[in-house]
Amino acid sequence: MNKILLFSLFACLTTPVGAQQLLTLDSCRAMALRNNKQLRVSRVKQDVAANLRKSARTKYLPHVSALGGYEWTSKEISLLNDDQKSSLSNMGTNLTSGIQEKAGEAMQNVPQSVWQILGGLGITPASIQEGIGNILNPMGNALNQTGQRIVDAFRSDTRNVFAGAVMVTQPVFMGGAIIAMNKMADIGEQYAANSAEAKRQLTLYQIDQAYWQVVSLKHKQKLAQSFVDLVKKLDDDVQKMIEEGFATRSEGLSVSVKVNEAEMALMQVNDGLTLSKMLLCQLCGLPMNGQVTLADEDSEALGAVELTPKVDAGQAAGNRPELKQLQNVVDMSRQLTKILKAGNLPQVALTGGYLVSNPNLYNGFQKKFDGVWNVGVLVRVPIWNWGDVAYKVRASKGATTIANLELEDVREKIELQVNQSVFHVEEANKKLEMAKANTLKADENLRTANLGFHEGVISATTVMEAQTAWLQAQSQKIDAEIDVKLSQVNLQKAMGTLE
Questions:
Q1: What is the pLDDT, as a whole number, of residue 457?
Q2: Residue 277: C-alpha distances to residues 38, 222, 289, 353 (Å)
Q3: pLDDT at position 19, please?
Q4: Cα dist from 201 to 128, 204, 221, 286, 419, whole Å
Q5: I want to staple 144 with a disulfide (CB 3.0 to 4.6 A). Which of 92, 225, 277, 422 is the partner?
Q6: What Cα–Cα distance (Å) separates residue 439 from each residue in 54, 376, 432, 448, 454?
Q7: Residue 74 in contact with residue 136, Cβ under 8 Å?
Q8: What is the largest distance, in Å, between two alpha-carbon atoms of the chain?
Q9: Sign of the CA dihedral 250, 256, 258, 261?
Q10: Helix, strand, or coil here: 24?
């Protein structure tokens, strides 16, 4: 048995495009839900909303970031000014020059008698100056070199600067913005789910409309074909009666015109049926030129009078995804107001990390990478923003009020729609009962007219009138049966219970 079922399923899946496919309403719904592009878009939007919710959750956790950079400058940072550099570099020269100057002043104060005595010994001012210079010059050069080394040691060499840091930031208090953001993400996910449900119900509603439209036109096609056969039979009988002299040529022309009208009506029904099947195939995701047969095409009784269900408008309000979406909009607007209010509240965050630089700022501008650990607290307190946040909060509250009013307006309209749908169901049931009664009368009227025509007591015109009344009664019966089906679908759509 299982092998037979598997073989049958495989045969259905491998049915060629040109072959007839038997479709039920449930199979059309299933294919439409599976192949509808907008439903696929809704599912992707749900995934997007779920990822945004997960992203919002990460705002509670510490974030780690790494920074790195390089900078070249035309000048380096100098800890000494130019005069200090010059003084240190010429420290020995300045010292020896000062000593020699003082020595010269001292020798000028020596009496000439002393210089005469010293001259006898070969000591002159010039020789003394030369001797002092020979002693001080090496000392001055050494001091100059020492001063230059001091100047060089104070160079920062910051024309080429490399820096990097690893930072950890942990939010502590953000004025409630993170909590509101997470709630908005949750509401956004609910909104995406409600949007998908609304599109799902709309797809089912559209497929039901298209399905019953095809069934209606198929029955009208059969009815039109029957009417064509009926008037052709009448035309044949009238032509025979004209030949025998029992009918006039005028009656024959009237019947011929009726035949042409019937054939034109059949052609219109055929065209409408073809277009309706193309729409149904497109909604089901099938090739639009596919040959399909619906399970209810050959059903004799499409609709039966059903008891009008007892409905609760409050239940409809709880089921309709459109109302849920509007409620989501109201909730998101309230959370947005909280986020805006957080702009006037203090924000606190903990920070920590490791900072490296080259030149090394912590060891005399050494040309080597080195760093330091750091921990801190950041506090941001808004003081004055000219009422910017207050204006935004007022605008957000206004948007919330608008969303609430729209929600109430749609709720009232849905209540009206439910009541109208219930009324339509009752009306469709009454029309079906009347249409069935009219059909019985039209059948009897046609039978009597045909019998009288063959007996020669009723004219062809009267028979055509009976045929037209029969066609109208049968057409109204088909419309009433389809209306019963669609009224039930409309009620389920209004109640939000279309499954």
A1: 75
A2: 21, 16, 9, 68
A3: 56
A4: 117, 5, 30, 20, 19
A5: 92
A6: 63, 90, 10, 14, 22
A7: no
A8: 187
A9: negative
A10: coil
Residue showing tokens 């003394």? 128
Contact 357, 305 (CB under 8 A): no
Pull the structure tokens for residue 309: 């269900």
Query: The dihedral of CA 150, 151, 156, 159: what is its sign?
Result: negative
Q: Which of 421, 438, 441, 449 is nearest to 476 (CA)?
A: 438
Cα 446 to its chain centre, rounded Å, is 61
Q: What is the CA radius of gyration of the chain?
A: 51
142-175 in b/e form (b: 16+ CB < 10 A) is ebbeebbeebeeebeebeebebbbeeeeebeebb
Alpha-carbon span 290 to 282, nearest angstrom: 10
Q: Is 389 helix (H, G, I), strand (E, B) or coil?
A: helix
The per-residue pLDDT for 195 is 94
pLDDT, residue 128, reads: 65
The residues with which 379 forms a beta bridge, in sequence order, are 348
326: closest CA among 203, 416, 411?
411
**pLDDT of the residue at 2:** 39
Q: Is 71 helix (H, G, I), strand (E, B) or coil?
A: strand
Q: How many CB atoms lie within 10 A of CB 269?
A: 19
Residue 400: its pLDDT value, please? Answer: 94
- Amino acid identity at 456: G
Kindly report the number of other CB atoms within 10 A of residue 401's CB atom.
Answer: 12
What is the model's pLDDT at position 309? 66
Contact 489, 307 (CB under 8 A): no
> Does the bond joining 359 to the residue before it have cis omega, within 30 degrees of 0?
yes
Q: Would you say 372 and 361 are in contact if contact means Cβ atoms under 8 Å apart?
A: no
User: Could you report the average pLDDT of every consecutive run of 10 residues in the chain (499 residues)?
Assistant: 37 45 90 91 94 94 92 81 77 72 66 65 66 71 78 76 92 92 95 94 93 92 90 83 76 85 92 92 88 84 64 81 94 94 92 89 79 92 91 94 94 91 90 91 89 80 86 90 90 87
